C-alpha cells in the first residue's frame, strides 16, 4: 500500500474555487444595496426558527423576482455574492441545501437571462454541495445535475461558461458518491442521468 499510494493521492481537494485549478476572483458584496440585513454567520447560526424562516423567505423572494431591468439583475448578483460568503460554512450550507432555496436556485439556473447570474447561481450550488454535511432525501440533486449537464452541452464551445458549470456538476457528483459510499442508500432524487457521464467524458476528451 505504501508503494502504491502517496499520501497526497488520498487527500480530496475541492473542485470549486480551487486556486490550483483556476484563480477565482474574491467575492465581495455591497451590504448597502442588499435589500436584506447582511447577517453574519454567527447571527444566522444563533437565530430562532421563526427568524431564520423569515430571512429565508426574503432571500427566496428576492431571487425569484421576475423583474428584468438592470437594477434588478445587479441586486440579484449582489445577493448571490452574499450567499457565496455564507455557504462556505458547514452549518449554513446544510440548512440551505435542504431548504426551499435549492429549487429556486435551480429555477434561476434554468430561466435567468443574464449569464452572470447563471454563473453565480452555479457557484452557490457548487459551494453548497462542497460544504454541506447532510443531504436530505428530498433535495432535487438529480434535477440540478440534469440542468448543469444540458447547459454544458449547449455551450460546449464556450470554455468560459463550461468553467462556470463543470465545477458545480463535479461537486454534486462527488457529494452523491460520498453519501452512497457511507452506506446511505441511493435515493431516487439522487440518480445521475447517463447524459452527465457522456458530457463529462466528452469534456475530458476534447477539453
From TrEMBL:
The keyword RNA-binding does not apply. One of its GO terms (molecular function) is kinase activity. InterPro entries: ARM-like, ARM-type_fold, ULK4. SUPFAM superfamilies: ARM repeat. Coiled coil: none annotated. Keywords: Kinase, Transferase. This is ULK4 kinase.
